[in-house]
Write a structure and sequence with these properties.
Part of the nascent polypeptide-associated complex (NAC). This protein is α+β, with helices and mostly antiparallel strands and 187 residues long. It has a domain of 77 residues: Ubiquitin Ligase Nedd4, Chain: W. 46% of the residues lie in helices and 16% in strands. It has six helices and six strands. The strands form two sheets. The chain has a three-stranded antiparallel β-sheet with strand order 1-4-5, with no helix packed on it. Strands 2-3-6 form a three-stranded antiparallel β-sheet. The longest helix has 26 residues. The protein is elongated and about 110 Å long. About 6% of the residues have low confidence.
Length: 187
């Protein structure tokens, strides 16, 4: 039977580098120990809960959504746990937050916006107008020009309704007469 022998040759320089990285001091010093991962989140959470208990917060049931407005950003909590202590002026909203832009949530949260967000709404309206020059704003102006015939004409001082209506009918009559003349000349 044949015996298979594998010889692994490692680069001596690489081994020295790896061993040197483990030492914190110079030659002869103690090697560093494995760093322990600290779990501070559970202790912080327990400390927070004990402080809230001392303040006397009560859970408020039935809240489906919490929106916190900050500049153009909305921090949104879906089905959060809300606790409050009105005497201590303390409100706690816990849950998974989602950061969204105000314009993404705009149609649904417009009734939640207060007077302090009025400037944000104005800025958003200006942005929409700048973004869509040929979009809805342009389409509205074209539609207004077509519906102009149905509107009441504006009066100039000194004119009557009848005079303004006659002036408007005269250009329309000329436009209708022009195609008939072209048809007759082409035949």
């Amino acid at each position: 039977m044949q015996q298979l022998v594998c010889v692994v040759q490692m680069n001596v320089d690489k081994l020295k580098k790896m061993a040197g990285a483990v030492r914190t001091g110079g030659k002869g010093s103690v090697r560093r120990k494995k760093k322990a991962v600290h779990k501070t989140t559970t202790t912080d959470d327990k400390r927070l809960q004990s402080t809230l208990k001392r303040v006397g917060v009560n859970t408020i049931p039935g809240i489906e959504e919490v929106n916190i407005f900050k500049d153009d950003v909305v921090i949104q909590f879906q089905n959060p746990k809300v606790q409050a202590s009105i005497a201590a002026n303390t409100w706690v909203v816990s849950g998974t937050p989602q950061t969204k832009k105000l314009q993404d949530l705009l149609p649904t949260i417009i009734n939640q916006l207060g007077p302090d967000n009025l400037d944000n709404l104005r800025r958003l309206a200006e942005q929409f107008q700048k973004q869509m020059p040929g979009g809805e704003a342009g389409g509205a102006s074209i539609g207004a020009a077509q519906d102009d015939d149905d509107d009441v004409p504006e009066l100039v001082p000194g004119e009557t309704f009848e005079e303004a209506a006659e002036e408007k009918k005269e250009p329309e009559a000329k436009k209708e007469a022009e195609p008939e003349e072209k048809k007759e000349s082409s035949s």
